[in-house]
Amino acid sequence: MHRNILTLVILGSLIVAAALLAQFMGIRLYERIATTMFVSMILVLGLQVFMGNSGILSFAHIGFMGVGAYASAVLSIPERMKGMALPDLYPILVDVQLSPYVTILIGGLVAALVAAALSYPLMRLSDAAAVITSFALLVVLHTILTHWSAVTNGPRTLFGLPKATSLWLACGLALAALVGAMAFKESRVGRLLRASRDDEVAAAAIGVDIVKLRWLGFILAALFAGIGGALWGHFVTSFSPRAFYLKETFLILSMLVIGGANTVTGAVIGTLIVTFVYEALRSVEASINEAGIVSQQVIGLTEIVLALAMIAVLALRPGGLFPVREIGTLLTLKRKTGRKSP
Amino acid sequence: MMLDDAQNRAPLVMNAGSVEFSGLKALDSVSLRLEPGEILGLIGPNGSGKTTTINAITGQVPLAGGDVRIGERVISGMSPRKIALMGVARSFQIVRLFNNMTTLENVETAALARGDSRRIAREKAQALLSEFSLEGHADDLCGTLSYGDKRRVEIARALAAEPSFLFLDEPAAGMNVAETDALLEILRALPGDRGLGLLIIDHDMSLIMRLCDRLQVISSGRTIAEGSAEDVRSNQDVIEAYLGTGADD
Asked: Which of left, alpha, beta for A45 (phi over 0: left; psi -120 to 50: alpha)?
């Protein structure tokens, strides 16, 4: 058990160090980048909870981020703003104005409830069928967010969310997500789910209820995604359904895949690395364009490099940077652990 | 672990079990009885239906006819998961381990799946690892183990569930003579120590003959002989099934 504590201490320190660094640099942009990174980290850790333990790729995750963000928005936008922001809102919800600190949690719970209601039959599927249906679920959630004008203002931007998310709130919730993901992985449910990930037939043959455990993992992942989405909503204070679709899905997925989906360490390190590379490339891109080195505008550099990085990782190290073992375990094992199972 | 209630002393019986794969009879009315505390060897030529018999009993393939019972309780038709929780454990012809977990975790998981507490599961797993001389590999990922070790981990994992009936599909495949002999000693003690009924498939006839109380021979999906090693060895049908008849050559 001490290995897991060591892992938590190392990863937790990295998270706090990133927050301190962002704060003491004294540049507002860095604080913004770090806050967004912590939101991403919560989402990546949530995706790790389901994907890492069940071994099933889920595209639906960001849809639940959207559910959380909109749920929190509807419950927290001030009454006087609602007339403008959500003109068609159901009367019963117009008077509701809760503290965003409460609605962020409610956003997570709503996302978890939606996931619980929708996902059970999907958990019977494996491999390609599971991936495709999760993608379909993302499309369905996106379509609902885009067209349920009464609570989402349709495809238009929803504004008026009270600003509540600070660097340290995001940092604190990222730490909580870290502990939550690790606790789930080491729990009975997490262990049995990982058994089914490694071998479904053998897991069933020792009595593992695979469908139910996947479902529990999926619900917990949606809780993380909903909280992450709500947290982000109260940071940017205005957004449209487009924010919760393919671009975000691939960013979060690339963070997890590059870091290593099977480990919590991979989720955290992947988020840190991808954020750093992404922001560095963006500033390079901006300076190239400013200096006018190239005759045309350079666009899409970040996406291309990120895609190439993902291909490189998948080709050279298919399990990601941390494919099997957590950092605390790697450090405590006496002999060299270069050997990795495929 | 001695089992004491009546249900757990009941035999596992397959009555005229048949299995079809797209119209082809892989198993044709095979009856089989496994008593707690005995070792039954299931032998036969390649493709005769041995593994299919295990798959049918443990629920991996559905029965087209007949049924499987433990005592009065019909278990055929249940999911593999439910059958496992009824006290039926197995190993696989091609080893199926949780390769991204350590040896200790693999064994522990089977105890956790049946509802043991974390502490008890850990204790059981550690005891089983030393019983199978695997302590040195406790922290190794199962994917990195040697073939013989993997086979032993799989058996240890099956035992962690404290089954009433254990089905081993070629447990000695890929083991050298020393490993096979060590395995034989462990397997021989299982029914007595744990009160379980053990069914073994293996091509290693010397292992089977030394280990089993009783043999059942199947060929082309039918039982062709049953009895002691001596009975089976001298049975004309068995000789023909293994060696073919002179006329066919």
From this structure: alpha
